[in-house]
Design brief:
The complex is a heterodimer. The radius of gyration of chain A is 23 Å and the shape is elongated. Chain A starts with a helix and ends with a helix. In chain A, about 30% of the residues lie in helices and about 30% in strands. The longest helix of chain A is centred in the N-terminal third of the chain and has 26 residues. By secondary structure, chain A is of the alpha/beta class. Chain B is mainly alpha-helical. In chain B, about 85% of the residues lie in helices and about 0% in strands. Chain B is elongated. Classes of the chains: A alpha/beta, B mainly alpha. At the A-B interface, α1 of A face α2, α6, α7 and α8 of B.
Chain lengths: ~150, ~260
């Protein structure tokens, strides 16, 4: 095979390979998702994080704005400290409420942010003051049974 | 020599042989890297090897990728619909292909299709003393023969893995959307929200790049190190395929445990 045809075939091969990579990037994956390279970090303390995991999404109004970076246990307050990376283009007021929610009945858990009304925005390293813990199903059922027992006694 | 002593001797011999070969392979890898500057400057040598190991592997990669995707689509749908989430078949196909099956299967096919050919070629060159002749003419055989084949494989491998993954997802789409009738909007949108470019696709590409280095190195090394006989070449080819497959699976386990720590 002469050299120019060989070059041509290799060129076609490389184009197909890079095309496949572009297909994966644009059609299969989501490149346009939040860019966390320059994200700012915010902390929040929860009484109970339920089944929240590292890399779980952080959503506001249903839109993904960041991801959970780390989860620690504070030995002084006995609460869970969740470190969140939020993309720099999404700014939230300082009195934003963080709550742990579940998508669907059996879905994954995520952190929902409800923006407050403060004039100042959250900066890197800030701590969210108001949080709402995950709802644990067993506790909910226990509460329900307790209420029912109380109601029938009356 | 009595039985047990000979057996112990054999084991000891195998161990020292293995360690010796490992050391030689490491030194050989350094030599390939050292002399690869020359082969990268004479780029047509590398392009020729990309043709032989990449372009000629294209057909088997495309066909196997398609079939793996078809099977994943069928089996995935079969299981997922029991939980009433047949729409998620796209997620299953895309995640398993980008993270694991794409890089690993492409590397296994590449090792048996292209790695064995490289070993045979280099081994025959050694057996017919072409490598020695080059040395005599002051042409470094590692720079002229080995390094282009190594780099050709390293460059071709990630591209082949990307093609394999894309074909697999196409196969999953064929079964899921065209044959079974999953809603195409749900198929693609669930896939897009579940597959992250950096986390899933780039990690898969990094895997296939590492596999490319491992398979190409094993292939050229076994060829360069073979016994210069007909039997020696055939043994070297067998060793290339076997140790490439083992290396791919072992490296895959190590990389997976680093990359996907069950955090998401």
């Amino acid at each position: 095979m002469s050299r120019s045809t060989l070059d041509l075939w290799v060129g076609i091969f490389v184009v197909i390979g890079i095309g496949a990579l572009f297909f994966l990037a644009l059609r299969v994956g989501n490149v346009s998702s939040v860019n966390l390279a320059e994200a700012y970090t915010v902390q929040a303390e929860f009484d109970n994080i339920g089944g929240l995991k590292v890399r779980a999404p952080i959503k506001s109004a249903g839109v993904v704005v960041g991801r959970v970076n780390a989860i620690r246990f504070d030995i002084h307050t006995y609460r869970a400290v969740v470190e969140m990376n939020i993309a720099p283009e999404f700014e939230f007021p300082r009195d934003t409420i963080a709550s742990i929610l579940t998508s669907g009945l059996l879905g994954e858990q995520y952190i929902g942010l409800d923006p407050g009304g403060d004039v100042e925005n959250l900066a890197n390293g800030d701590k969210l003051q108001i949080t709402q813990s995950a709802i644990v199903l067993e506790k909910l059922i226990g509460q329900f049974l307790f209420d029912r027992a109380g109601a029938t006694n009356e | 020599m009595s039985g047990p002593v000979a057996a112990v001797r054999r084991i000891g011999n195998l161990v020292t042989e293995g360690v010796w070969r490992l050391g030689f392979a490491a030194r050989f890898f350094m030599l390939v890297l050292l002399y690869s500057g020359q082969s990268l400057r004479r780029v047509h040598l590398t392009i020729r090897e990309i043709y032989f190991s990449g372009v000629l592997s294209l057909l088997i990669i495309v066909v196997s990728g398609l079939f793996v995707g078809l099977v994943l689509g069928l089996q995935g749908y079969e299981t997922l619909q029991r939980f009433g989430s047949g729409d998620a078949v796209g997620v299953l196909v895309a995640l398993s292909l980008t993270r694991e099956l794409g890089p690993v299967m492409a590397a296994l096919l590449f090792a048996s299709r292209a790695g064995s050919a490289v070993t045979a070629e280099v081994g025959l060159m050694k057996t017919t003393e072409q490598l020695k002749a080059m040395d005599m003419m002051a042409v470094n055989p590692i720079a002229r023969v080995v390094a282009p084949r190594f780099w050709g494989g390293v460059i071709a491998m990630p591209l082949l893995a990307a093609i394999f993954t894309s074909m697999g997802i196409f196969g999953g789409w064929l079964i899921g959307v065209v044959v079974i009738g999953v809603d195409p909007g749900a198929f693609w949108s669930q896939m897009q929200s579940a597959v992250d470019f950096r986390y899933d696709i780039m990690n898969g590409m990094i895997k296939s790049f590492v596999f490319g280095i491992a398979v190409s190195l094993i292939a050229v090394f076994e060829g360069f190190d073979c016994h210069p006989t007909a039997e020696g070449i055939s043994r070297a080819i067998t060793r290339t395929v076997v140790s490439s497959a083992l290396a791919i699976l072992a490296i895959d386990f190590v990389l997976t445990s680093f990359m996907f720590r069950g955090t998401s």
